[in-house]
Every structure is written in structure tokens, then in C-alpha cells.
Amino acid sequence: MDIPLSYYLCLSAVLFVVGVGGVLTRRNAIVVFMCIELMLNSVNLTLIAFSSFLGSITGQALVFFVMAVAAAEAAVGLAIVIAIYRNKQTVDIDEINILKW
Amino acid sequence: MESLVFFFLAAFAVTTAVLMVLQRSPLVSAIYLIANFFALAALYLLLRAQLLAVLQIVVYTGAIMVLVVFVIMLLNLGDEARVHPRIAIRTWITVVLAAGFLSEIVYIFFLAGTPAEGTTISGGAESLGTVESMGEALFGKFLLPFEVTSLLLLVAILGAVVLAKKKG
Predict the structure, then answer these.
(1) What gap in Å lies between CA B78 and CA B152, rounded to an integer?
(2) For residues B21 and A18, is the Cβ–Cβ distance under 8 A?
(3) Which residues of A touch B20 (CB under 8 A)?
(4) Using one digit for the tens of pLDDT, what is the confidence trace for A23-54?
(5) Is there a contact between A79 and B128 if contact means CB atoms under 8 Å apart?
(6) Disulfide: which of A22, B24, B34, B158 matches A35 by Cβ 3.0-4.6 Å?
(7) Within an 8 Å CB–CB cutoff, is residue A82 touching chain B?
């Protein structure tokens, strides 16, 4: 039996929502960061599914660029986390509220 | 057979994602996320995207997650503290919002219908995800974005060094 496109899209939607839930509930900055990676990956799954089902390479090329951006984001994001930890001795996002009005 | 593999991988991916969010220890969360990435790589193979399945493992689990695990160990982060009662209501709001969001998406997929072409994996998909065709696309049609990506990575390296450097 062939798997319909909507199954892949639903799986990716579930993964995305789990990632959103993690970003909203977790308070460790690094875990929030990992949840964002999960959301990026669920979107990648959508792009690859569309690419395969429509027979077009564009979706897979876009996933390649998403991976490059994710790698850049990981490097800069973790450097920011280290800089914050050095200043405040915590990565709890409820404690990092200096920009909060 | 293929659907059996798909459902196993889908269940594995969702389970590891949920466990990652529920875990208190950041390090165990990272391990679950790595397991999730392996499931996604297998799903990419199921979609005939060979190069991206390999890149998923090499780039995500090999580079990004190693960096994350490295930072978690470097900062020696302990378990997340218990949620304060004042904040616990936030969790419930999140659950309600996430459930609403998910039901909206599923409603669109199943009741509004999918495009007519999207019923089976297209015949040319096997040759689509190979290194050869990806290389032709990246160095042909997508040459400018590809080159800009190298600039982005260079800026990211410089930014990471500047941000993480000790002020002195």
C-alpha cells in the first residue's frame, strides 16, 4: 500500500506542534533551542514529502538551505547561551528578563 | 510493508519528540532528539531522498547535536526545577493552544483535500534525491543561494567566536 501525502503532512504537523509545546513550556534555554530544531525538522519533512510526491527537486534544495541555516543558527545561538550563562550564571529563560517591560 | 515501516517510524518519531519535551534533564532531552533525527532520516529514505537522509545524520546528529551536548556538559546544567504553581497554568494554556493548532492543521489536510498529484510518490522520485541530481540543482538553478549560504556560514563562525569570547 502506498502511503498518501497527507500521512506525511500529519506526522510533520504533530512533530511541529510538539516542538511548539516544548518552546512554550520548557524554561531551559538550550531545551527551547532543541525544540526549535525539532520544528525546523518537521518543516523539512513537509518539504521533502512535497518534493517526492510532485517530482520536483526544489523542495529538497530548500531543505539543504534550511540545514545550512540551522547549523549557523546553532553556532550563534549556543554562543549567545554561553555569553548569557557567563553573565547571569543561569540559562533559565524566566530569570533572563532584563529586556522585559 | 512500506506502510508498516512508515507507521513504526512515525510512532518512534512522535514518541521520542514527546519524551524530549517531557524530560527534565537537558542531556536526556538531547539524546531523545538525536533518536528523533534518526527516525526522520529513515523517513527521508522512505521518500527517496537519499542525499538528505545522509546529510540529516551527518549535519544534525553529527554536528549540531554534538555542539548542543557539548554546551550542556560545558555549562554542567542540572535538572530543570519543578514548575512554580503560578507558572503551571501556562502549561495548560499551551496544551489547549497546541491541541487547537493541531486540529486546525489536520482539518485542512483531511477535509479540505490534498492536491490531485499528491496521491503516490512520483515515478521520477528515485533519481531525484541522488547526489547527482541534487548537485546539478545546487550548482545550476540554485547557484546564487548556494554561494550566499557560504557567506552566511562564514558570518555565523565569526559571530560565534565574537559572542563566546571572553571580554578582555
Answers:
(1) 33
(2) yes
(3) 22, 34-35, 38
(4) 988 888 999 999 999 999 999 999 999 888 88
(5) no
(6) A22
(7) yes
